[in-house]
Amino acid sequence: MKNNPFRLPKKEGFQKRYKYLDYIPKPIHLDPMIYDLVGDKEFCQRDGRIPLLLITEYGVFPAIGKNNHKNYAQLHGLENRWVGYLGRIYLTNREKYTILLAETNRALLEQVWSGTQDLNLTLWPTLCFSDN
């Protein structure tokens, strides 16, 4: 993982910037030093860390809330805050090198809820995937 833009130096007392759901596939390119693995309750809490969602060609993964987990396809629980999106092609496991940050403001939420904005890989303007 040389030249990885997501790798940060290890520091004592370093607060992680992101949080990621502990029951979905882990990021390929993100250094685990910058994110915590959390459950649904902590994922939705406002605590200074940015929640990261996994986006595939089919939308937010997982698309259906199963086993008492939340369905984040409609961004419920993540309103009016910054959210990070990781892009991954589900079938080939190729992942974007970048995190797309977006504020879940009222305009975006209305577009998602009405179906005029899809949360899928079309959010990224170029195909800059890794070859894993």
Describe this structure in words.
- There is one protein chain.
- With 132 residues, the protein is mainly β.
- The protein has one domain (18-123).
- It is built from 2 helices and 6 strands; from the N terminus they run ββαββββα.
- Strand 3 and strand 4 form a beta hairpin.
- The chain starts with 17 loop residues before the first strand and ends in an 18-residue tail after the last helix.
- Residues 1-9 and 126-132 have low confidence and may be disordered.
Give a concise summary:
This protein is mainly beta. It has helices spanning 40-44, 106-114; strands at residues 18-21, 35-38, 50-56, 59-61, 82-89, 94-103. A hairpin with a 4-residue loop joins strand 5 and strand 6.
Main β sheet profile: 6 strands, mixed
One letter per element, helices H and strands E, the order comes to EEHEEEEH
Supply the helix-strand structural class. Answer: mainly beta
Percentage of residues in DSSP E strands? 25-35%
Average pLDDT rating: 79
Residue share in helices?
10-25%
Extract low-pLDDT stretches.
1-9, 126-132
Count of discrete structural domains: 1
Terminal CA distance reads: 11 Å
Global geometry: globular
User: In DSSP terms, counting alpha (H) and pi (I) runs of 4 or more, how many helices?
Assistant: 2
- Nearest-angstrom radius of gyration? 15 Å
Total count of strands: 6
